[in-house]
Amino acid sequence: MCIACLAFALYTAFSASAQDVTVRIHLARPFGYFVGDLIHARIDVSAPPEALLSRASLPNPGPLTGSLELRDVKLRETVEHGARLWRLDLTYQNFYVALDVREIEIPSFDLAISTAAGAETVKVPAWRVGVSPLREITPQKQEEATDYMRPDGSAVFVNETTPRNLAIGAGAAALLALALVARDRAWPPFQRRKVRVFSALANELSARRIESGDGDFGAAIQSVHRALDAVNGATLLSADLPDFLRRRSEFGPLRADFERFFAASKRRFFGGERSSDDFRADELTRFVSALAKRERAG
After folding, report:
1. Which of 91, 130, 233, 285 could disulfide-link 72, Cβ–Cβ 3.0 to 4.6 Å?
2. How is residue 214 annotated by DSSP?
């Protein structure tokens, strides 16, 4: 029975102490501040979880003494280990011009906290920080005024060869790319480049999407004839095909397609029985695309 009473008494004592309001002050450093320096402090206030802090009781930024000013106040609230924790981040600025090393006092302030037991005032005690003087360091006496100045630092040698070579190479590559684009687009001085007749016709047929049985297919065959005439420089008939392929050897691998095309054209426009070997619309488009490819290669 006595042991049970003792255990209950210890539990009550620890519970009461856990519910007390505690204040802890943390400083970035307690000494070494000069005039104009900022002094950062963190105040941790721990209270029961149901406690409430009156924000009106927080210190207001502004002058505290003739040589100390509160610049900024930030409050963060959280719950840690079953207790309410308020974390105050305070920033002071020191304007005290110290003649020697000494301590100055950061004034205390009160916080109003409401708990289940009622409202109470928690005092954040004053604390002290060390300030240091700014003292002049007198150099040894020199004969000349220039002797008080430090010599100029040596310049670092920079090798400009590599960047210059890279710039020249990049410029040459850019000019080459520009020349290739100008040739492809027939910009001056490449505007007299041979007209790519088959390339233009291939683009036209792809856009028209002709069908084998309609009138556009006949018009497409006539367009191919006109393109062949333009490339040949005169009307190109089937009998002229061997001579044309000798002069324009880049089209030689397409001899069989040429012969099929002329045979299909003759049957369509001059009569004759249809053949299963006749050109269809898609085959005609592929034939013109092959001509355009050979034209670009030549």
Report:
1. 91
2. S
Domain count, the chain: 2
Beta strands in 48-131 (DSSP E): 52-53, 62-65, 68-80, 83-94, 102-106, 109-115, 118-124, 127-131
Cα distance between the two ends of the chain: 113
The first and second tokens of residue 267, run together, are 């049957």
Enter the tokens of residue 181.
């684009």
Distance in angstroms (rounded) separating the CA atoms of residues 258 and 28: 91
Nearest to 83 by CA among 34, 162, 15: 15
| Last residue within a domain, chosen from 96, 131, 166 | 131
pLDDT in tens, 176-189: 999 888 877 767 77
Tell me the torsion sign for CA atoms 280, 282, 284, 287: negative
Q: Kindly state whether residue 270 falls inside one of the protein's structural domains.
A: yes
d(CA 159, CA 78): 59
Is residue 166 included in any domain, yes or no? no
Residue that terminates a domain, selected from 131, 152, 184: 131
> For residue 142, is it within any domain?
no
Q: Are 224 and 260 in contact (CB under 8 A)?
A: no
pTM value?
Answer: 0.42
Residues 112 and 204 in one domain: no
Q: What is the 3-state secondary structure (H, E, C) of 169-206?
A: HHHHHHHHHHHHHHHHHCCCCCCCCCCCHHHHHHHHHH
| Interacting residues of 146 by C-beta distance below 8 A, sequence separation 6+ | none
Diameter of the chain measured on Cα atoms: 130
